[in-house]
């Protein structure tokens, strides 16, 4: 990805360099933007957000099981505390993710990124992209770097 000199490189911020930059580009592209640009239907973030949601949940569940001392009910409660839209939104806001997303024209006019749900989906897409590019370990490292979960 190429950024202006006054904007930090997103890969530097998240502490991960993509082997396949096209995956990152897809994670940063909203469906409306792709439609406006005439890009193929598969070039937007939606599928990556779904994948990222699953990866985040898997990472949290793995960490909870590894730390032990939890029964099924406790794991479910802790997981809900750790994986929620507010935490995802906060991580997205902390790294100013909205500045890197390719928004559709209407989304830009409406400042749609101010919706917590939208930024949460963008974080999920980013995590899904890292998972595709670098596996669960890479995704876990990025989650910790951006403050989703403590190291």
Automatic annotation (TrEMBL):
Domain of life: Archaea
InterPro entries with a match to the protein in the record: RNase_III_dom, RNase_III_sf
Family annotation (SMART domains): RIBOc
Transmembrane intervals: none
A biological-process GO annotation: RNA processing
Xref: Pfam families: Ribonucleas_3_3 (PF14622)
Domain (RNase III) ranges: 7-135
Name of the protein described by the UniProt record: Ribonuclease III
Protein's organism: Methanospirillum lacunae
């Amino acid at each position: 990805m190429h950024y202006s000199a006054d904007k930090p490189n997103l890969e530097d911020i998240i502490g991960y360099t993509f082997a396949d930059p096209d995956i990152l580009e897809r994670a940063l592209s909203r469906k409306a933007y792709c439609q406006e640009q005439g890009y193929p239907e598969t070039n937007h973030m939606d599928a990556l957000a779904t994948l990222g949601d699953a990866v985040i949940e898997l990472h949290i569940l793995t960490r909870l099981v590894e730390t032990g001392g939890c029964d099924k009910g406790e794991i479910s409660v802790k997981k809900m505390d750790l994986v929620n839209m507010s935490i995802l939104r906060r991580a997205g806001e902390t790294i100013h993710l909205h500045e890197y997303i390719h928004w559709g024209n209407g989304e830009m006019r409406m400042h749609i990124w101010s919706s917590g749900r939208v930024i949460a989906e963008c974080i999920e897409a980013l995590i899904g992209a890292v998972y595709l590019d670098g596996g669960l370990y890479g995704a876990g490292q990025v989650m910790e770097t951006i403050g989703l979960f403590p190291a």
